[in-house]
Design goal:
With about 450 residues, this protein is an alpha/beta fold. The protein is built from 17 helices and 12 strands. The chain has helices at about 25-35, 35-55, 60-70, 75-85, 85-90, 95-100, 115-125, 155-165, 200-205, 230-255, 260-265, 300-305, 320-325, 335-350, 375, 405-410, 435-450; strands at about 5-10, 105-115, 130-140, 145-150, 170, 270-275, 290, 315, 330, 355, 380-390, 415-420. It has a 5-stranded mixed β-sheet. The chain has a 5-stranded mixed β-sheet with strand order 6-12-11-7-10, with helices on both faces. It has a two-stranded parallel sheet with strand order 8-9. β8 (about 315), α13 and β9 form a beta-alpha-beta unit. α2 packs antiparallel against α3 (about 60-70) and α10 (about 230-255) packs across α16. Pfam families: Acyltransferase, HAD_RAM2_N. One of its GO terms (molecular function) is glycerol-3-phosphate 2-O-acyltransferase activity. One of its GO terms (biological process) is cutin biosynthetic process. Belongs to the GPAT/DAPAT family.
């Protein structure tokens, strides 16, 4: 099939992403930008929203959902969720066939039922869209969302204004019907693009296509997208999770590290250890620098529990609450290179030390760029590959109160950690034999990535 590849217009919900109902993404905004109360309120009101949908009042249902999810929120917080949280979950829902068609066009326009602020970062940075057409939040002069919006719906008139009398090459949408953007897409017939089945187009047109730009890092509390069943399960589990979180945090404070094997069931923690950890430092055996990738807040604590001794860890943005409850010594870095180097040298002279050169957590199957500072300070480097799976909650977020990080980790019903000790890197691969700090950091990063399959 030959098609003019100049422009394409596509729906987001139900086309570029599989789920036609954006309710789960409103739940994410409510949870991440506001908290549990708004999250719970949305799920309580879901039957009313669903009733509006079934009664053919989709516009009212959407406006009602937007009002509950956004009213009173800072626009900066909504923008943050749209930048750091939602892209991860949108990426998981991409319809590959629709993306293959969409990616082949020069000018790409995306229509969304949700406020533009929710999806713009995702569709422009990860899908390569040029324009996003969605509803616009009404914001008061203090920078708070009123919960009201302009231009609700798929905005056919706004698409016509964007294209003028130019005929787009293709439109992608759902089946014809009252809710389909095809049924009311353009006011003028001469501007209507030809529609075709995305599957049929792919059978006829097997051009190469680019992969969506991967989501390397995301920052949220919830492990899974809050679909209706998942949300109900979280809310039902929450009272038990709070009790477990309190008990576990108390146990961390009062029990020694050697007690960990006997209380793992209460912690809900499963630790899988691979490789051979080095012996503790002694008069004839200097301490080593454990260089780890950073997956979650508890990485240094888990490593210490596996080693059976308290190994200090360097940190950047740990909350004061987490520092108080931390069962191991923590050394707060300043991001001043010389000051931080002096601190690390001082700790290495005393024994073992843990460091995560990524500087922040990354939950996706990638490693962020390693800082080369650690390679300048010692040749005794032991790489440690860490991976984990949590039940409901991640233990780190940049939005909200950081003091909840540790508590969220302990609220999970079960968490599995895999700790793999690699051999100490040979002296010929260190700075003492002429390697640059960046070469050493890249080598250690490659070893960890290969071990984890990242």
């Amino acid at each position: 099939m030959t098609t003019n590849k100049k422009s394409i217009v596509s729906e987001l919900e139900g086309t570029l992403i599989k789920d036609p109902d954006p309710f789960s993404y409103f739940m994410l905004v409510a949870f991440e930008a506001s908290g549990l109360i708004r999250f719970t309120l949305l799920i309580i009101l879901w039957p009313i929203i669903h009733l509006f949908h079934k009664s053919g009042m989709e516009g009212i249902a959407l406006r009602f959902t937007i009002f509950i999810a956004f009213v009173g929120l800072r626009v900066s917080d909504i923008e943050y969720v749209g930048r750091a949280v939602l892209p991860k979950f949108y990426m998981d829902e991409i319809d590959v066939d629709a993306w293959k068609v969409f990616s082949q066009y020069d000018k790409k326009v995306v229509l969304t039922k949700t406020p533009r602020i929710m999806v713009e970062r995702f569709v422009k940075e990860h899908l390569g869209a040029d324009h996003v057409i969605g509803s616009e939040l009404i914001v008061n002069r203090f920078g708070f969302a009123t919960g009201l919006v302009r231009n609700v719906g798929l905005g056919p008139d706004r698409v016509v204004k964007l294209f003028g009398f130019e005929r787009p090459s293709l439109g992608l949408g759902r089946s014809l019907g009252s809710n389909s953007f095809r049924s009311h897409y353009f006011a003028r017939e001469q501007c209507r693009p030809p529609f075709t089945s995305k599957l049929k187009l792919m059978e006829d047109d097997n051009h190469d296509f680019k992969q969506p730009l991967p989501m390397i890092f995301h920052d949220d509390r919830l492990v899974k997208i809050p679909k209706l069943a998942t949300t109900l399960l979280i809310l039902l589990y929450l009272p038990l999770g709070v009790i477990l979180g309190i008990i576990r945090m108390i146990m961390v404070l009062v029990l020694p590290l050697c007690a960990t094997p006997y209380v793992k069931a209460i912690y809900g923690l499963s630790i899988i250890v691979k490789g051979n950890p080095p012996p503790p430092p002694s008069s004839s055996n200097k301490g080593v620098l454990f260089v780890c990738n950073h997956r979650a807040l508890m990485d240094p604590v888990i490593l210490s529990r596996v080693l059976g001794r308290k190994v200090p860890a360097v940190t950047y943005s740990l909350s004061r609450v987490t520092e108080i409850f931390a069962p191991i010594p923590t050394i707060r870095l300043t991001r001043n290179r010389q000051v931080d180097a002096d601190k690390i040298k001082e700790m290495l002279n005393k024994g073992d030390l843990e460091i995560c050169p990524e500087g922040t957590t990354c939950r996706e199957p990638f490693l962020l760029r390693f800082s080369g500072l650690f390679a300048e300070l010692t040749d005794q480097i032991v790489p440690v590959a860490l991976n984990y799976k949590a039940g409901f909650f991640h233990a780190t977020t940049a939005l909200g109160w950081k003091g909840l990080d540790l508590f969220c980790f302990f609220m999970n019903p079960r968490t599995t950690y895999e700790v793999t000790f690699l051999d100490q890197i040979p002296s010929k691969a260190t700075c003492s034999c002429g390697k640059t700090p960046h070469e050493v950091a890249n080598f250690v990063q490659w070893l960890l990535a290969a071990t984890l399959g990242f």
